[in-house]
Amino acid sequence: METIVKNEKYEVRFDKSKNRLFYTFTGFWETPDVVVDLMDDCKKGLDQMSSGFTLLVNLSAIKTPSKDVRALFVELQQITMGYNPGRIAEVMDSMMVKVNVDETHDISGVKTKQFDSVEKATQWLDE
Fold first, then answer.
1. How far apart are CA 50 and CA 19, in angstroms?
2. According to CATH, what is the number of the domain 2-126?
3. Is this prediction's pTM over 0.90?
4. Distance CA 67, CA 100 (A)
5. Torsion angle in degrees (nearest 10) through CA of 111, 75, 19, 64
């Protein structure tokens, strides 16, 4: 497992042997300015993956994002889809975050499966 970046707002890691990318988002992102390097950092992870990779997105520690930040998530989802992912699992435990995430999916067209634990998401990705 290799870490591309870990800071107070997000972490991007990958496991080349599993062809799996990991995004972990934390805290409250008031504006996209608090994560100015997010796209570049995520692209570095995406560049390590092969077509059909799996993605685990951990949203269990993020607060409900602002409208501007939701637009950033839509853009990230669209970029990710350009790399031809396989299964995408999302972990979240807040209904408000789920509502916001579902709205971004409606816009970007990304298809995911949502879980309440990293363990369940990992098990599904490993199938």
1. 7
2. 3.30.750.24
3. yes
4. 9
5. -70
